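Supplementary Text 2. Reproducibility record for the structural model of the 340-residue chain.

All settings were left at their defaults, and a single model was retained for analysis rather than an ensemble. We include the record here because the model underlies the residue-level annotations in Supplementary Table 4.
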Amino acid sequence: MLKDLITIDGTQYSNWGPDIFQQMRAGGVTAVNVTLVYWENARETLSNLGHWNRAFETHGSLIMPIRRMQDIEVAQRTGRVGIMFGLQNASSIEDDVSLIEIFGQLGVRTMQLTYNNQSLLAAGCYETQDAGVTRFGKVVIEEMNRVGMLIDMSHSAERSTLEAIDLSSRPIVISHANPLFFHPSKRNKSDTVLKALAARGGLLGFSLYPYHLKNGPACTLDDFVEMVLRTIDLMGVDHVGLGSDLCQNQPYSILEWMRNGRWTKTTDYGEGSAGAPEWPDQPEWFKNNADFPNLVRGFERHGLSEEDIRKIMGLNWYRLLADAEQSNGLVRHDADLTAA
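Retained model, structure tokens:
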């Protein structure tokens, strides 16, 4: 196993607690982008942030907040898991563009413009019509660029995604999805999208969620690695990473919330589920957070260099997040006061 490997998972929504934190340490996870919301509004998002503040206090020997990207080295050195925050929907900002900066100041690093459905900003991947990025969406993209928050189009439709790539002055991410050539999921992305994403410096985080994998839970590690290699040929190794989309130990009620929110009275079972009211089984080689080393072994077996493995496992995410942080326009009142 590679020494001092930085592993960054671009998306998870697990049922967090000391058992999973310890499992993440065992799996060598250096940092994870934690989903704060799916359909929650601004007030509910603040409550979720408060929950994490309590978790940092209670489990400070296992986890720590990533306030600056250099904190990832601190997490690695002290044997803790670094926690970053992402929004899987724009519901948190409601219809107020000023909330983007506020959530950025509170540590949110990524935000999806849509979650499956049409939002105020763009079209989701489950919509039959994709009119692209809206007027409000263009304003939001500009503001996210200004404050250094990464635009995430994981759950967005094709035209909306391509327009967001073009409109953004910064690289964007698709934090948790796979190429469409690998499996015909509504969430997976076409070669056209992936080429455009790479051309503008963006990143695709490979998903380990079974409905995004060829043969679902029966997908083999070799199948997954071969998909990664083909994607590298398409995009370049500097534009890929991990976004496992793990939802460990979550009850079925969470799956209902993710799919249904408050927008429908009927059950939306989601693609691939065949109406089954349950979570899909994970592949045997990636059951949980302890299994990240299996990915490294698979990459090594297929001849990837140490440098390329380090990029895929975390350094590409690190670079993109650090670049956004260093050039952000967040108001730092403490610095202003010191200068005065």
